[in-house]
């Protein structure tokens, strides 16, 4: 009996410690309450504080439907985290919004020039203003234009003396610009003017490749004199007055206004020695945070990036934490940032959109890197280099996951950003995400430290929309061994075999993804990217580029309407390119060595194969019709009778993007363009180029009208208003006869040459107009 009694007591004790304690939050609550179901607290911060008093327990924070503003970042730290497990969740079937903005009802008065004003006292100047949930632009020049490709409107004279002379006091305004090479962005805070009205400003630290700001792609904001367009606003902190030109059709008397107060809503921070564990956040919306672009200062080794370690949710020093089924939108910075040590965290089934910076970022501590260097042109001398393999410590994200997230319309302010960013991390799984409408890469890996990543089943498209020289997937590999000079790398790797693998200690795998980039490459392995396995991917537009690096095996990929771009390869690279389907001939640049094996590929035209074989590669490759099941709809599975199988190619799983039913209903899909076989013997072919339609020269009348000596060239037959062709001053009847110093004999050659050089962003062309030859510089993108 005694034993049975003790057993029952023991079971009851165990069950009581397993039972979860629930803290309730409601908009009708009071922070002085205990947090019970009948006496809930009112704020998110109070709910978290109430949870922290329960030692060694499972705690659930359940939040009633409603909006919960946060005016100070809520922190959960290892010093104040006594729990065994914490779940933060929305009440079932209710919408919970945690906001970095505070709502106000304002009393408006007429001012002048269609402006109204309202008195409001704020501790600091607001960064973003929302009216009825819609973001309004600050007073800016040029005015906000939703159709403009870069920054929603730019102008070369944005910071000219002629313009700044009109501004009484521009202090506190901002200058935003692309990098001179379109490699990201710069931002500056205006500090005043000198005696000549020249602007004084500080900033420009957001990019790790120093340069001048772009001469054309720039704009200014937060300047009172530029308040001249419906929807624009300006806050004068000294006067404690908000000025606004009301949006067309708005009712200010019933409108709700919200100002962003903070850039980061929640920080979960432990340490490598004492991590925070087992926190789950599910079903919650995180919205309306301030922009963080002026805090982007920390360089990421030798990549082009600088970063701010902050986001709506920051994880640092955590283990087994989950952010699932949440929404992140209308954010000024990043959505989720995993900084330094994080292990086995999972970011899954989230919808991330309309945000200023990154979707999800994994960034380790440079203190874990052996012999780190922090600029493209910097390096540690080989004689002083740490030759130990791998990291110095474990202070970096590892074995974490980004799965089934829908990420789009990111980087609205920070252009050096990505849907998923990885730096100084190991074994990150990025799987079944759909990523689109981003200014630069959809997925970016900043360097080789420390590899082991698996990038699979993602659908990444509409990428590199505002920048240049990049890819839908982009990587750099400027690791310990790397130098800009090929001859130095060749010599040091020959002298120290294996040095190229000291940082990227495990292969990085890209498999079963669909990538599309019209302004660069679909897959872009840039400077030194090493130790990659790339297979079973569909490249829809920009092709696949491998710049110098080592140990890349690329096989069983489908490259639609483009080709393989090998650039400046190293000696004895061990690179392999085989069993791939390509549309056009290779587009090599300064190739002196061709790796271990380049063969057994399949080309969609005989001409492309013959041209490629002249490079002394692909002796056993084949050409012909691929036999896709339905190429016009993007079904690139092969019919059983396809000749492609003779090369060793194998059909593969093409289940790209999100599989979560909620997100799948919301996602877009890439545009599937007609298959261009790049043959030169087809007349009457009409192609789209730069938004205009071109055809071959076929008749004596066409030759005569243009004043051509022969039938060579591509005739512009239809010009769409607002197209890139129109913006480049091309006109109906123009005949393109040369592109990038290459003769254009047909529309197919025009497209082939364009596919090889469009990554440059601009080019010289020669046209025949009015029976006269003209040379022009054209932009290849909007």
Automatic annotation (TrEMBL):
Span of the signal peptide: 1-20
PDZ domain ranges (all copies): 690-780
Domain Right handed beta helix: 310-448
Database matches in InterPro entries: Beta_helix, PbH1, PDZ, PDZ_sf, Pectin_lyas_fold, Pectin_lyase_fold/virulence
Domain of life, source organism: Bacteria
Key words of the record: Signal
SMART domains: PbH1
Pfam families from the UniProt entry: Beta_helix, PDZ_2
UniProt name for this protein: Peptide-binding protein
Gene source species: Pedobacter kyungheensis
């Amino acid at each position: 009996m005694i034993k049975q009694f003790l057993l029952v007591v023991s079971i009851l004790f165990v069950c009581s410690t397993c039972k979860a304690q629930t803290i309730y939050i409601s908009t009708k609550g009071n922070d002085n309450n205990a947090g019970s179901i009948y006496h809930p607290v009112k704020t998110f911060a109070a709910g978290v504080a109430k949870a922290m008093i329960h030692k060694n327990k499972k705690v659930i924070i359940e939040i009633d439907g409603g909006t919960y503003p946060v005016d100070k970042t809520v922190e959960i730290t290892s010093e104040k985290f006594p729990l065994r497990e914490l779940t933060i969740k929305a009440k079932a079937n209710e919408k919970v919004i945690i906001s970095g903005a505070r709502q106000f009802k304002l009393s408006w008065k007429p001012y002048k020039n269609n402006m109204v004003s309202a008195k409001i006292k704020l501790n600091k100047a607001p960064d973003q203003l929302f009216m009825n949930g819609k973001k309004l632009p600050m007073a800016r020049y040029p005015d906000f234009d939703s159709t403009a490709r870069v920054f929603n409107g730019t102008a070369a004279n944005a910071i000219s003396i002629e313009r700044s002379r009109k501004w009484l006091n521009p202090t506190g305004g901002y200058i935003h610009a692309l990098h001179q090479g379109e490699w990201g962005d710069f931002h500056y805070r205006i500090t005043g003017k000198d005696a000549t009205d020249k602007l004084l400003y500080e900033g420009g630290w957001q990019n790790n490749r120093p340069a001048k700001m772009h001469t054309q792609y720039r704009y200014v904001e937060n300047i009172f004199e530029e308040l001249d367009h419906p929807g624009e606003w300006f806050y004068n902190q000294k006067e404690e007055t908000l000025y606004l030109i009301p949006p067309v059709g708005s009712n200010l008397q019933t409108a709700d206004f919200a100002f962003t107060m903070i850039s980061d809503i929640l920080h979960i921070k432990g340490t490598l020695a004492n991590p925070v564990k087992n926190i789950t956040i599910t079903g919650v919306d995180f919205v309306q945070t301030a922009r963080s672009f002026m805090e982007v200062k920390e360089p990421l080794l030798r990549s082009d990036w600088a970063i701010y370690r902050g986001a709506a949710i920051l994880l640092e020093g955590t283990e087994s934490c989950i952010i699932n089924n949440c929404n992140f939108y209308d954010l000024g910075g990043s959505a989720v940032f995993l900084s330094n040590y994080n292990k086995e965290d999972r970011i899954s089934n989230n919808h991330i959109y309309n945000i200023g910076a990154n979707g999800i970022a994994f960034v380790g501590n440079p203190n874990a890197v052996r012999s780190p260097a922090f600029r493209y042109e910097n390096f540690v001398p080989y004689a002083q280099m740490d030759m130990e393999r791998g990291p110095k410590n474990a202070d970096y994200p590892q074995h974490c996951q980004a799965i089934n997230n829908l990420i789009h319309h990111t980087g609205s302010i920070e252009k050096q950003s990505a849907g998923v960013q990885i730096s100084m991390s190991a074994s990150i799984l990025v799987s079944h995400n759909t990523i689109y409408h981003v200014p630069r890469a959809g997925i970016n890996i900043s360097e080789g430290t420390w590899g082991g990543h698996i990038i699979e089943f993602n659908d990444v498209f509409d990428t590199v929309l505002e920048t240049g020289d990049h890819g839908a997937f982009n990587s750099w590999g400027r690791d310990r061994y790397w130098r800009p000079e090929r001859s130095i790398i060749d010599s040091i790797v020959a002298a120290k075999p294996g040095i190229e693998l000291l940082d990227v200690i495990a292969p990085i795998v890209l498999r079963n993804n669909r990538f599309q980039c019209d302004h660069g490459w679909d897959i872009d392995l840039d400077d030194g990217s090493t130790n990659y396995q790339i297979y079973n991917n569909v490249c829809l537009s920009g092709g696949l580029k491998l710049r110098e690096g080592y140990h890349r095996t690329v096989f069983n990929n489908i490259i639609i309407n483009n080709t393989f771009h090998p650039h400046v390869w190293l000696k004895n690279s061990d690179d392999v390119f085989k069993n791939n389907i390509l549309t056009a001939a290779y587009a090599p640049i300064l190739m002196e060595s061709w790796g271990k094996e380049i063969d057994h590929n399949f080309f969609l035209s005989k001409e492309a194969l013959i041209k490629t074989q002249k490079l002394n590669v692909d002796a056993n490759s084949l050409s012909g019709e691929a036999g896709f099941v339905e190429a016009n709809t993007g079904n690139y599975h092969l019919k059983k009778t396809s000749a492609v199988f003779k090369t060793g190619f194998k059909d593969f799983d093409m289940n790209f993007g999100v599989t979560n039913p909620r997100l799948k209903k919301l996602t877009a899909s890439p545009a599937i363009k007609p298959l261009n076989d790049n043959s030169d013997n087809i007349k009457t072919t009409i192609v789209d180029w730069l938004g205009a339609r071109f055809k071959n020269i076929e008749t004596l009348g066409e030759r005569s009208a243009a004043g051509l000596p022969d039938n060579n060239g591509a005739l512009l037959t239809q010009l769409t208003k607002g197209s890139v062709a129109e913006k480049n001053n091309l006109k109906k009847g123009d005949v393109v006869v040369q592109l990038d110093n290459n003769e254009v004999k047909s529309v197919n050659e025009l497209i082939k040459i364009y596919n090889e050089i469009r990554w440059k962003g601009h080019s010289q062309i020669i046209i025949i107009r009015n029976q006269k030859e003209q040379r022009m510089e054209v932009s290849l993108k909007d």
